Amino acid sequence: MTLTEAIEALRPLQMPYDTSHGERCGFLMADAARALGGLAQASNALALLMAVDLVVSAPKVCGSEVQTVFSLADDVTPTLH
To answer: What is the DSSP string of the chain?
Structure first.
């Protein structure tokens, strides 16, 4: 799978999440794993996309857990910290 194919598979998964960086549209790893054919494929694809700044991430508190919300960089509004 190319990076372009991975992006196109991930784009429809994006939905709004309340993160520590404010509201962001994105997806969780479980969503990416289903879309990309498994956890290993999703992890590898996201690592590559993050390495070239095409995907960014932000933490989200879910009860007593912290999950990562991944967002396609072209859909992210810059925030001040």
So the answer is: --HHHHHHHHGGG-EEEEEBTEEEEEB-HHHHHHHHTSHHHHHHHHHHHHHTTSEEEEEEEETTEEEEEEEEGGGPPP---
Question: 79, 17 in Cβ contact below 8 A?
Answer: no
Determine the Cα–Cα distance for residues 81 and 58; give it in Å rounded to an integer.
12
Q: What pTM does this model have?
A: 0.84
Largest CA distance in the chain: 36
Residues 57-74 pLDDT 10s: 999 988 899 999 999 988
